Amino acid sequence: EDGLGDTIRVSLTEDPVLEIPVARLLAEKFNKRIVKPEPVRGYSEFRNPFTYERFYSSEIKVGTFEAGENHPVRVETVLPFENSNSFLANIAKLYQYGKSFSIEPESILIDSPSPDQLKEISEAAAALSIPVGILLGKNVSLNEKLQNELRGFPKVVFDPFLQFQDGKKMLSFLQERQNAGLYTE
Q1: 32 with 64, same domain?
Q2: Which InterPro entries match (predicted)?
Q3: Alpha carbon separation from 62 to 47, 66, 184 (Å, rounded)
Q4: What pLDDT score does 58 carry?
Q5: Does residue 131 contact residue 64 with C-beta atoms inside 8 Å?
Q6: N or C: which end of the chain has fewer CB within 10 A?
Q7: Range of the domain at 171
């Protein structure tokens, strides 16, 4: 097997046109033994990173706020929540700041509020024309009471590994929100 190419090259002494069929027969015997490697499984790039290609994103709707697919890029502002007055004052500052650039806030995400603030947040959000979502903190467990309180918010962001111990309950929560037309990530 080793050196087969050299053997074919020096051993055949006939006219080259006549040697080719003999060389093929000799090599074919060994070529049949070649085992093709199995395709590598795992991650494969789904697009060519060296050419421009519009990245696909599915459309989402959070209240009146639409993003993804054919909608322009949107910016969501993450704000803390201490109380209604400071929250609404921060929103007013955002509107004032954006006025000089002809932009307005499009969506607000409240970072890690305590569960006992949700009612106050909901009341403050009702005064706004833009959607207000909740980003759950790492120390918050998504129990049934909290899940019910979150129904009033068009968007909830959580870490499934931190907020849910039971996968079935998490899927049930996600399905319920999806059926109600609410966005969850």
Answers
A1: no
A2: Dihydropteroate_synth-like_sf
A3: 29, 6, 9
A4: 82
A5: yes
A6: N
A7: 60-184
